[in-house]
């Protein structure tokens, strides 16, 4: 609203200076207060009212607001929409990119009342500016107060150039400065990610306590060495050796945790940079790089096809440009059941994926979505959501029935075709024998497995035959969903189905791959299957980034790939080899009895490694840079020299060498890869993938970037020669005389190929990033049965032992690996050996109670004080670690319990198996971890209570029994002793209870369902304990009763 406090006086024609009308002057102080000026204060009034006494040196600090509009000079024509700029006198025009420029744009000056220029006889309403060596000030009109709103209304004034307001004139280009509206409306450069440091109030005490406990451990161990137990040197010697190793193992685990960090990604900035209209991208197409998603499966019996199909559906519906996503599944078993289940999944995806896009469904795994306990209508606004959900739920139920019925349908089909083949064979024999079938003629027809089109399945048959068994079959590649169109394909209303009007109904490309296998070749398990997918995908799609998932790990957050891409496409992202996401699990029992969630590792250790050189690769939920998988070096690397890597220097560039030249580098990991195979299409794809994986060069600080709009070209459709080449690179002979598995791709030679592959990349100087999303990125399943869980831990520990005895030992790493990162990888190879000392230490309390001695001479004050300090320091460190990692106290305690259970069982066996492999060359084979649930449909945790005996139970069970018996014997010995040694009893009993408390989940797992054990078990356990106690007292009577015993008297 334009209002005024009083009528505005009109000025008349002005003659001499004596006719000057009275003017009230005022200035605004720094505090904002208006101060009136008297007529004695001479001011500079330009124009017709200027006099010879007006030029004085007076300074007033005025901000450039609408009532303070400085002009260029007194005689300039200032009418119009674009005002002159206020610049220093005799200064050249300033440039937009000059940092030393003092250019200030001000608002437009007021026009005269009649819309013309400077008219004689009328007061020029424009605001003047003093021309002196000081600041400008405001000249107010003859009215007492200046009305801002009326001034803007009557004069059509503008604020000027800036990002708050811009005039709507068509000709908005400033010919004097060369700037236009676009120059000021350009958004500032924004990073895609940021680091969120752990609060100093948590991290500083955490570090201080670690240093304090290190000093306390050193003092305690030195005191223990200087104060041996002369009565039981054997007990003292075993305990001190174990304690020294535990201190060393604790240092290896805690030192890499000195610098934990958090990270956050900006999805809005990613969209603005890569999917918004710009001069390089006028149509606003997606400029994001392509992503190839790899799914691995091997056995449909242990990895149900329905679970794999749900994972595929969650990937096909991911929120990423459809033309940029390609999905590949590696079926290493070559099973027709998996093949046909994937075909059914693609068919169902034609309605499931548009439904997810239409209603913004989360999660996009149908099974998980329909089993949610929350209200499905929450935040849903479309009126047809309930109808659509009801229809899609019915379709999914029918889809599940078809998947579950596939084994029977395939069996019946094969029986029908094989019977037809047998009848055809009989007919041929009759034709040869004049219509008579000889009674002694044996009709041999191969029991083949048939596809739906009436042809033989080229993979594994139900009844294995030559060229059709699990380790001997042809390579298979089937494009089940073709390459999508580059432009969105919008759906429409469909009678009886869903209304997809305005919804993109395209599906990403999906390919089924089963590499060729022959009996005379080593196929290198999962690592070999992954490398086959790397080569096939390079021929078909060549996405610069690869997302690796297990068949039971589905996408829980449809924006997860975008969040990972924020790190790859940010400044410095060209040095990142992979983005590791935390593993989250479903179907775990509420108490998490066996620490299946593993949150201490994923939220503690991995977050801490992110503050160093990056987290380790853990097998699934990882987005790779394809170029880094090929064994190349990062564009920039750093060498860390010195005892603790305190000296940093840029690493030297490694020059490529010919195959005949000997490597000149000190470490083999620093040599460049040369032998990729004989596929020219594959080798030509390598530089393309490297270029497309670069960040956007939209800022001067972005190094090794690519120009905007470089990835807008549509992908060409696949042709027969390209698919034939992809089939050739998955053949079993392709890797002969190449560096695949040695320097290129997933590394062979270990059951934990994931850790070795990540280690090799870090060893070349690459960095990795840990991406924890607000909503879990991926979710999967984990074995909740005790036997399966221990076998899983056994496989991991065995791989760590293999790493320790191989060239991948961190002690042999290059100088490009940070010191604390080296310690973390060293701990990966050493932690299984702690089991030897842990087993001994778990038996020490029992040995102490049996012998009547303790690990120290007596429980004196020094021992107790040291023990108290070390324990309290560890508790405080754990509490602070829980604080910065977000791990719950119960989860931390479960992790401690299972560390003892796994250390005394699986880790010990892993050390023995690793030593056998290194010394005797005995290979180790492992069974695939089952992904199926328990058989009890009413109890989803039924598998938790199933007791499946394994040799891994022997050592923990022996520790439990021995400690229980020792407690009974120790108590009886002390009670019936002439001079009771209560301190030794309390010391041994305390440590025995410590061991038993950690073994409680193991004992509960042996009790079966709901912990119900037959009463006879308790009876026999009590009888055995009492009998053994009495026998031990007779064999080794308490002190003071030896004389009585020697006289033939048994005294208690």
Automatic annotation (TrEMBL):
It is a multi-pass membrane protein. GO terms for biological process: cell wall organization; cellulose biosynthetic process. GO terms for molecular function: cellulose synthase (UDP-forming) activity. The active site is at residues 332, 754. Coiled coil: none annotated. One of its GO terms (cellular component) is Golgi membrane. InterPro entries: Cellulose_synth, Nucleotide-diphossugar_trans. UDP-alpha-D-glucose binds at residues 296, 302-303, 332, 525. Keywords: Cell wall biogenesis/degradation, Glycosyltransferase, Golgi apparatus, Membrane, Transferase, Transmembrane, Transmembrane helix. The chain crosses the membrane at residues 200-221, 233-252, 824-849, 861-880, 952-979, 985-1003, 1015-1035. Residues 1-41, 58-123 are annotated as: Disordered. It is found in: Golgi apparatus membrane. Mn(2+) binds at residues 526, 550. Its main location: Golgi. Residues 1-15, 68-77 have a biased composition (Polar residues). The keyword 4Fe-4S does not apply. Thought to be a Golgi-localized beta-glycan synthase that polymerize the backbones of noncellulosic polysaccharides (hemicelluloses) of plant cell wall. Belongs to the glycosyltransferase 2 family. Plant cellulose synthase-like D subfamily. This is Cellulose synthase-like protein D1. It comes from Dorcoceras hygrometricum.
């Amino acid at each position: 609203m334009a209002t005024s406090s009083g009528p505005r006086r009109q000025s008349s024609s002005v003659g001499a200076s004596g006719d000057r009308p009275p003017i009230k002057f005022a200035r605004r102080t720094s505090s904002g207060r208006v101060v009136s000026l008297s007529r004695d204060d001479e001011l500079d009034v330009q124009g017709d009212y200027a006099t010879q006494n007006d030029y004085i040196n007076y300074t007033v600090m005025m901000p450039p607001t609408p009532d303070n509009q400085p002009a260029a000079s007194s005689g300039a024509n200032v009418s119009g929409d674009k005002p002159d700029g206020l610049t220093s006198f005799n200064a050249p025009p300033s440039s937009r990119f000059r940092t030393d420029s003092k250019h200030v744009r001000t608002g437009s000056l007021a026009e005269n009342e009649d819309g013309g220029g400077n008219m004689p006889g009328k007061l020029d309403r424009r605001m003047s500016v003093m021309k002196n060596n000081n600041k400008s000030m405001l000249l107010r009109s003859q009215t007492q107060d200046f009305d801002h709103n009326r001034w803007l209304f009557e004069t059509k004034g503008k604020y000027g150039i800036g990002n708050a307001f811009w005039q709507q004139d068509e000709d908005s280009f400033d010919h004097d400065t060369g700037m236009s509206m676009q120059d000021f409306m350009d958004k500032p450069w924004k990073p895609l990610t940021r680091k969120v440091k752990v609060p100093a109030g948590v991290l500083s005490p955490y570090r201080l306590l670690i240093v304090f406990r290190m000093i306390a451990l050193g003092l305690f161990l030195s005191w223990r060495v200087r104060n041996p137990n002369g009565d039981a040197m054997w007990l003292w010697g075993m305990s001190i050796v174990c304690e020294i190793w535990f201190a060393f193992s604790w240092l290896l685990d805690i030192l890499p945790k000195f610098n934990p960090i958090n990270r956050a990604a900006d999805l809005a900035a990613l969209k603005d940079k890569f999917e918004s209209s710009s001069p390089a991208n006028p149509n606003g197409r997606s400029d994001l790089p392509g992503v190839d998603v790899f799914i691995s499966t091997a056995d449909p019996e242990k990895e149900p096809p329905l679970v794999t199909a749900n994972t595929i559906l969650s990937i096909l519906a991911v929120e990423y440009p459809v033309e940029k996503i390609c999905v590949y599944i590696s079926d290493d078993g070559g099973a027709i059941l998996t093949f046909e289940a994937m075909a059914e999944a693609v068919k169902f995806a034609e309605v499931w994926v548009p439904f997810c896009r239409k209603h913004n469904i989360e999660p996009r795994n149908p099974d998980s979505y329909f089993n949610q306990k929350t209200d499905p209508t929450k935040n849903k606004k479309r009126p047809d959501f309930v109808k659509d959900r009801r229809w899609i739920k019915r379709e999914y139920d029918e889809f599940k029935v078809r998947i579950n019925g596939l084994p029977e349908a395939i069996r019946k089909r094969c029986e029908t075709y094989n019977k037809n083949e047998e009848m055809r064979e009989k007919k041929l024999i009759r034709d040869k024998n004049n219509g008579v079938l000889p009674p002694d003629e044996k009709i041999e027809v191969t029991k083949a497995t048939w596809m739906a089109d009436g042809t033989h399945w080229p993979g594994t048959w139900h009844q294995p035959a030559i060229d059709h068994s699990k380790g001997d079959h042809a390579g298979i590649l089937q494009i089940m969903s073709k390459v999508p169109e580059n432009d969105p394909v919008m759906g429409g209303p469909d009678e009886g189905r869903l209304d997809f009007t305005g919804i993109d109904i395209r599906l990403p490309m999906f390919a089924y791959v089963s590499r060729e296998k022959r009996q005379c070749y080593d196929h290198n398990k999962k690592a070999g299957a992954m490398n086959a997918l790397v080569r096939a995908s390079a021929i078909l799609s060549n996405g610069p980034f690869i997302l690796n998932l297990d068949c039971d790990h589905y996408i829980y957050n449809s924006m997860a790939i975008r969040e990972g891409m924020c790190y790859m496409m940010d400044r410095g992202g060209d040095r990142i080899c992979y983005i590791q996401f935390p593993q989250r699990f479903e179907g775990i029992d509420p108490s998490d009895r066996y620490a299946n969630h593993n949150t201490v590792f994923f939220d503690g250790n991995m977050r801490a490694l992110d503050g160093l050189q990056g987290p380790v690769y853990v097998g699934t939920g990882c987005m790779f840079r394809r170029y880094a998988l090929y064994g190349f070096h990062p564009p920039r690397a750093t060498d860390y020299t010195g005892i603790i890597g305190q000296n940093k220097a840029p690493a030297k560039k490694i020059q490529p060498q010919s195959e005949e030249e000997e490597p000149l580098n000190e470490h083999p990991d620093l040599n460049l890869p040369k032998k990729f195979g004989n596929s020219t299409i594959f080798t030509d794809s390598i530089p393309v993938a490297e270029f497309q994986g670069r960040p956007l060069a939209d800022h001067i600080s972005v190094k090794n970037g690519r120009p905007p709009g470089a990835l807008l070209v549509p992908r060409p459709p696949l042709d027969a020669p390209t698919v034939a080449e992809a089939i050739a690179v998955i053949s079993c002979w392709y890797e002969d005389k190449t560096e695949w598995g040695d320097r290129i791709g997933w590394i062979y030679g270990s059951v934990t190929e994931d850790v070795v592959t990540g280690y090799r990349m870090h060893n070349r100087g690459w960095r990795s990033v840990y991406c924890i999303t607000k909503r879990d990125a991926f979710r999967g399943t984990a074995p909740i049965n005790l036997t399966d869980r221990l076998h899983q831990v056994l496989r991991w520990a065995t791989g760590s032992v293999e790493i320790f005895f191989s060239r991948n030992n961190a002690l042999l790493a290059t100088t490009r690996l940070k010191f604390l990162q080296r310690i973390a990888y060293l701990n990966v190879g050493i932690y299984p050996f702690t089991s030897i000392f842990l087993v001994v230490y778990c038996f020490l309390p029992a040995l102490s109670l049996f012998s009547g001695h303790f690990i120290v001479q007596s429980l004196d004050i020094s021992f107790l004080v040291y023990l108290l300090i070390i324990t309290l320091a560890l508790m405080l460190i754990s509490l602070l670690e829980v604080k910065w990692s977000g791990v719950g106290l119960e989860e931390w305690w479960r992790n401690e319990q299972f560390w003892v259970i796994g250390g005394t069982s699986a880790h010990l066996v892993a050390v023995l198996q690793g030593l056998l492999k290194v010394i005797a060359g005995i290979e180790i084979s492992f069974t695939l971890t089952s992904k199926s649930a328990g058989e009890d449909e009413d109890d989803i945790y039924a598998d938790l209570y199933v007791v499946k005996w394994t040799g891994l139970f022997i050592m923990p069970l022996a520790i439990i029994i021995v400690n229980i018996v020792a407690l009974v014997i120790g108590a009886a010995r002390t009670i019936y002793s002439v001079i009771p040694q209560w301190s030794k009893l309390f010391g041994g009993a305390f440590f025995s209870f410590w061991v038993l408390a950690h073994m409680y989940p193991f004992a509960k797992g042996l009790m079966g369902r709901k912990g119900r054990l037959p009463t006879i078990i308790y009876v026999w356990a009590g009888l055995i304990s009492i009998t053994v106690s009495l026998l031990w007292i007779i064999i080794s009577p308490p002190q003071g009763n030896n004389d009585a015993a020697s006289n033939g008297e048994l005294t208690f």
